[in-house]
């Protein structure tokens, strides 16, 4: 696959990621603040929001093999042949797992799938953060600071995603049960809005990180 084609796909995925985040954020605040929809309608729209949120996860996962493929084509990482195939296969398995977590979220096994999804992310964050920081300090395994910075910031983006999911989980524990049962009070709605505002701050940090990742990839500063 040519470098130009992979680069085009990588840029497209980054735009897909940012665009999805903006749509989700706008829809989240509409659901939290609306006073004209019933609880059932708000929950139906919330389920739709969770479907849209899958686009973010699609983009996050796809950016990993695309990014490392670009780095390999530039001779910056020693990944080729069977190892490159292995990277794409593992990424495909991650992609499948992410969708299974979503499809099974309302089934009896849903909490177990979600728990493993959380557990799976921590070693990935450790790997990206550790390898990026090590490279900035020693020049290995990523020989250029801009690539090491991109990998390190990607770990930060994953952390932001965990914070967003934490606030969503807190909403399920506090406000959403009352909203779905049509017995939400002003306190429930205020709690829901506050949690979504906190989640938005995590998103703002995520947007900054993604813009910075994009700038590093485009400018490739020494």
Walkthrough of the structure:
The relative contact order is 0.11. Helices cover 83% and strands 0% of the residues. It has one domain (3-219). The mean pLDDT is 96. It has 7 helices and no strands. It has 222 residues and is mainly α. It has helices spanning 3-33, 39-73, 82-103, 110-138, 145-173, 176-180, 186-219. The two termini are 27 Å apart.
In summary, what is this structure?
The protein has 222 residues and is mainly alpha-helical. Helix content is 83%, strand content 0%.
Label the overall shape. Answer: elongated
Question: What number of domains?
Answer: 1
Task: Write down the Rg.
Answer: 19 Å
Unreliable residue stretches? none
Helix-strand category: mainly alpha
Distance between the termini: 27 Å
Order of helices and strands: HHHHHHH
> Helix tally?
7
Total beta strand runs: 0
Sheet bearing the most strands, described?
none
Q: Mean pLDDT, as a whole number?
A: 96
What helical percentage do the residues reach?
over 70%
Proportion of β residues? under 5%
Q: What's the topology here?
A:
Layout: H1 3-33, H2 39-73, H3 82-103, H4 110-138, H5 145-173, H6 176-180, H7 186-219
Helix pairs in contact: 1-2, 1-7, 2-3, 3-4, 4-5, 5-7
Relevant terms:
single chain, mainly alpha, 83% helix
